[in-house]
Amino acid sequence: MLDITFIRQNPDIVRAAIKNKHCANVDLDRILSLAEERKVLAGNIGEINHKRNEAAAARSAESGKALKEELKGMEEKYQTLEKELVSLLIKVPNIPSADTPIGADESGNVVLREWGERPSFSFTPKAHWDIGPELGIIDNEKAAEVSGARFTYLKGDLVRMQFALLQLVLRVLSSREELQGILKKAGLSLNPRPFTPVLPPLMMRSQVMNRMARLDPIEDRYYLEKDDLVLIGSAEHTVGPIHMDEVIAEEQLPLRYVAYSSAFRREAGAAGKDTRGIFRLHQFDKIEMETFIVPEDGMAEQEFLVAIQEHLMRLLNISHRVVLICTGDMGFPDQRQIDIESWMPGQDTYRETHSADYVGGFQARRLHTKVKRKSGESESVHMNDATAFAMGRTLIAILENYQQEDGTVTVPEVLRAYVGKDTITKSE
Hints:
single chain, alpha+beta, Helix Hairpins, BirA Bifunctional Protein, domain 2, 8-stranded mixed sheet, 3-stranded antiparallel sheet, 14 helices
């Protein structure tokens, strides 16, 4: 949520964000009007309280009683006004960063850099939806019989590969030395404090997800109405509120978490899209990074998370590109969004495998998560979330980039010690 003072002082900037992020249901004029009414009313309440103190000092019971009744009516009006104002404020999107390109959709995204050579094959490379079933490690057909479309069984060595990816991430993010090396290579001066591993809840109260600004679009969520619980669509949904309603001492920051979880999405807007394979499922697994940091280091922290993502993909030796997301394609709470798209030779295109979202103080303001500065003052902490590995999409990239003509798949060198073999062959 944006600070109302910022909105009042910068209405043109806010209008531009509303327009460029396609948030048509925001009534900014009403917000400004209510904010002005609230300001006047707060002043009147303060004045009445002052008069009540004077009446009490003069021991004027009659005057005090009349002022009390007047105050009660004003406070009720203030609460009603405040409720409406907050209900409108939560619909206002975050302000895109100055370097975020303005664009209507993904066609407005900008490639920042590319890494790695695309593999060349002496044969026509297959897509993962052919490789997986032929090796007996992906079974969408049986999953469809059991659970419906957009579910899968991962089996055998592909499961070992998934947990190898998890072990790789935990190793990298737990190493102060490796993180320091990533920072140095990226030219960043941040504390290399390691990440704390977390296994988060997979369900959360709808009001808390709303405070995270991730409840909408509600049609993309699995909502258990009887229990008022929502299945998370990413680990950051329940890791983000881990310091909800808390004040964190500045000396404790940055706080960094790496969370492994399943995630659930209806994919309501993806009818007929990516129906083959495991790229877009209703249930999938992710390793997510979530960090809390002082405001002045917020954007540098995002660059650090992107550098970690690039480091991980380079360890896998998979060609990829880093993309700055435009206003029309970025998330509602995001101030700046950067994606990584990995080369998928079986599909002859780049596909998104990672996202890094800098949300500034937008979520923290809704969550009441603050940092207490050494000066004694408090302000909203800044937050970042980023993918370490979206398991299914990373497995796709490995299967398609490391496939061999005989149908086997070579295990990336960095994962072999965890997988326990060099090559994935057909499961017996």
